[in-house]
UniProtKB/TrEMBL annotation:
Subcellular location(s) of the protein: Cytoplasm
The protein's role, per its UniProt record: Catalyzes the ATP-dependent phosphorylation of L-homoserine to L-homoserine phosphate.
GO CC, alphabetical: cytoplasm
Pathway(s) annotated for this protein in UniProt: Amino-acid biosynthesis; L-threonine biosynthesis; L-threonine from L-aspartate: step 4/5
Name of this protein: Homoserine kinase
Sequence similarity: Belongs to the GHMP kinase family. Homoserine kinase subfamily.
Organism from which the protein derives: Halorubrum hochstenium ATCC 700873
Residues at which ATP binds: R80, P81, A82, S83, G84, L85, G86, S87, S88, A89, A90
UniProt keywords, alphabetically: Amino-acid biosynthesis, ATP-binding, Cytoplasm, Kinase, Nucleotide-binding, Threonine biosynthesis, Transferase
């Protein structure tokens, strides 16, 4: 038996659509696997009632097939589904790391990324790696057709999750198919700034680089109260604010001294919009960790 803690993640970070990702120190899923003749899946925890346990419909089932590793699998959800925090990716990443160890497949963490991404295709229709990569590798990740690169970064973060749901499929439908050249140039410049900030563990540069004039404004319209939440977070000391992944979670970069105030301000803004929310004072953290075997 192998148990793995797989962290929540934030994809895109504003300017890095489908490329950037970051592992969060909290929340996380805990995935336990045990060898079996046939695969069974049990899901408990937050939002478990919305997650199919049929291996053909669960992200973990695709990972099992890819690794040829049937198992009894228990997923204790700490990452709420439809949150913008890589819920499906955390389960797939945790299963990939756990099954690789359980069956002694000998694959590297980098080799596990595309395998876990196959699980993402089950729920979103696309085998993208921007969430599974940081959940497996940890740190700040950049995923392209050539593979994934990661770097450790000490950036304090606040993630505020409202009690509403935005599906990945719906959030992808609002992404513009074209963009003005000026917006593309601005986005590339911001993405470069963010990447430099991550390499330097500089929350000011990271925050400055989060701005995105193309995708984020469209997704923000799906989140009631987003503009007020963003403004209040900046007033409390955030260096950057954007939609986390497909949303509805909103993520803010900040300095350590400002994390509590930023979290309180974001919660208050959602409350003012009539929406309950939960805030996580987090930071860029480690990838999937084996807890027990």
């Amino acid at each position: 038996m192998v148990t793995v803690r797989a962290p929540a993640t934030s994809a895109n970070l504003g300017s890095g659509f489908d490329v950037f990702g970051a592992a969060l120190s909290r929340p996380a899923d805990v995935v336990t696997v045990e060898k079996a003749a046939e695969t069974t899946i049990e899901v408990t925890g937050v939002g478990a009632q919305y997650i199919p346990e049929d291996p053909e419909k669960n992200t973990v089932g695709a990972v099992v097939k890819a690794l040829d590793a049937p198992a009894r699998i228990h997923i204790d959800k700490g990452v709420r589904p439809a949150s913008g925090l890589g819920s499906s990716a955390a389960s797939a990443a945790g299963a990939a790391v756990a099954l690789n160890r359980l069956y002694d497949r000998g694959l590297s963490r980098e080799e596990l990324v595309p395998i876990a991404a196959e699980g993402e295709a089950v729920v979103s229709g696309v085998a993208h790696s921007d969430n599974v990569a940081p959940s497996i590798l940890g740190g700040f990740t950049v995923t392209t057709a050539e593979g994934t690169r990661s770097v450790d970064a000490a950036i304090p973060l606040v993630v505020c999750l409202p009690d509403v749901a935005v599906s990945t499929r719906d959030a992808r439908r609002v992404v513009p198919e074209t963009a003005p050249m000026d917006d593309l140039v601005e986005t590339v410049g911001n993405a470069a700034t963010l990447a430099i900030g991550m390499c330097r563990s500089d929350p000011d540069l990271v925050g400055l680089g989060m701005d995105d004039p193309v995708v984020t404004p469209e997704r923000a319209r799906l989140i009631t109260g987003y503009d007020e939440v963003r403004e209040r977070a900046f007033d409390a000391g955030a260096t950057g604010v954007t939609v986390s992944g497909a949303g509805p979670a909103v993520i803010a970069a900040c300095r350590d001294r400002d994390r509590r105030g930023v979290a309180a301000a974001m919660l208050d803004a959602f409350d003012g919009a009539g929406i309950e929310a939960r805030a996580y004072q987090s930071r860029i953290g480690r990838g999937s960790t084996i807890l027990d075997e």
